[in-house]
Amino acid sequence: MWVGKGENVKTGTNPYLYRMVQKRFFRFMALRLIVLTILTGWYGGHELLAQDPNAPKVKVVQISGKVVTKDENDDIVLLPYAVVAVQGTNRGTLTDFSGFFSIVVRTDETLVFSVLGYKNHYYEVPDTLTSDRYSFIQILSKDTILLPEAVIYPWPNPDYFVQEFLAMDVHDDLEDIAKENLSEKAMEQLREYLPSDGPEHVSLYMRQQSQDYYSEGQYKPQNIFNAFAWQQFIEAWKRGDFKKKKNTD
Known about the structure:
This protein has 249 residues and is an alpha+beta fold. Helices cover 37% and strands 19% of the residues. It contains six helices and ten strands; from the N terminus they run E-E-H-E-E-E-E-E-E-E-E-H-H-H-H-H. The chain has helices spanning 15-50, 160-166, 172-181, 184-193, 198-214, 227-239; strands at 3-4, 7-8, 60-70, 76-78, 83-86, 92-94, 100-106, 110-114, 121-124, 133-139.
């Protein structure tokens, strides 16, 4: 085993060769650190020299406001759910039901206000703002395109209408069919088996919400204590509405 002064070296290792490799390694690391320090200082100084001292400083501001429009009577109308986006980025927001918005931007960016049916408006954030908060009201104008009227006829020429109308065979069977389709029995079957559409669902939901809000914070009223409900029940009982109807079919 090779033994140096104050250190142990593995068997078969030349201590002089070991010290020489160790010194060269430390010299390489020190030289690398010096080169990195010089390059970092040169790059930082180059960046400082490249900056224009007279260029305006970019600041971050919070812009808030409302998006509105004007109706036919020049009255202000709020625009809910309008898009307020930063041009060239994926940042943006939506106005709430009252047209209010709030977004954080830089003074070198541009805001884009857009709503379906209205012209887009571009607002360049000025670099002269002295405060970090700024508010304004943005008015959008309608983007209406009037198309010429298109009238569709089942005939190649309107003059054919007179001929077709006079040649129409109107008999009593058509009137009987129309009366049958509009009879009370047919309407009752449609009301019973035809599924409800979207407006009916919305109307039912709104009525349920109105009833819930009416009794918000308290127990819902019970019709057993409602004198008007009792009156309607007694009148219906006298009319025989609860009697079983005989099937005449």
